[in-house]
Amino acid sequence: MLRPLISLLATVAATLAIGWIVDQSLQRVAARRPGAPVWALLRRCRVPLQLVVASALLLATEPLRQLVPAPEEEGAQHLLLLLLLASFGWLTVRVVAAALEALLSRYETRTEDPARRQRVHTQISMLRRVLSAVVVVVTVAVMLLTFSAMRTIGAGLLASAGIIGIVAGIAAQSTLGNFFAGLQIAFGDTVRIGDTVVVDGQQGTVEEITLSYLVVRLWDYRRLVVPVSYFVNKPFENWTRRDPGLLAAVLLHLDHCTPVDELRAALRAVLDRHPLWDGVEWALHVTDTTPSTIVVRATMTARSPDDAAQLRFDVREQLVAHLRDEHPRALPRLRTTDT
Length: 339
Description:
3 domains; five-stranded antiparallel β-sheet
């Protein structure tokens, strides 16, 4: 009785020692390379690694054979096998996530193009979800095959797999459609995490892409959850697919006596002082006339959609203030007489 107990304690001690050694090693490597997030992610593998080591040692040394009564011995061994398979699948998911994160961080340090960064970030996020789902499915399938009943009915399941596949395909048509739509979005580069999109007239930033839905953060911090199939079957606006820069436009309805050349000079002065203008392009034109007003459009470029929106607000405010202070007659008035 003493020998299996000592073996069990030795297994626990070895498990704790291996987890401590691995954790300390990763801490030292992370301290030497603080900019790499992969080491912090690998430290999350400590618990599943300890479970793998403990269950493997218990199965190999079999200290439970003498500690557990004979009727329950087979059940205990089977339970340890299930624990080993589940913890190994858990460890695989954590290692895959850390490896993909290391690949992403290494790519981000080598490129300065934000569009490419967003594309790779979206693809790796989707790939991590797909691989995690595959690992979970395979792990559960292997765990089920350890039961004798499942092996016995395996032939029958294979014989009816075609019919079940057809029925499941019809029942899960929407889910499968979203799944393949998510893969198409990730690797087709139509929309990426961080892109500014307009969906059903609402502008927002893509915050998350999964295999079934896409989350858009709106300007007021609401979240719009849209099935990924929407972005495959319906048209939408992507303002940052090729270039995050954007052309902002301000429309002003002014009186016919407005000094357009002076207003154009005022716009240039405002842009020269504004930190959000990227200095690439600007213009001011009279785009239309009505019996009572002219329509003046001021355009300017900014580095991102958020900068463009704020620049548009500020330019509109300062141009109206300039006209109010310097040329009040340029502001539209409601004429009640012929003079």
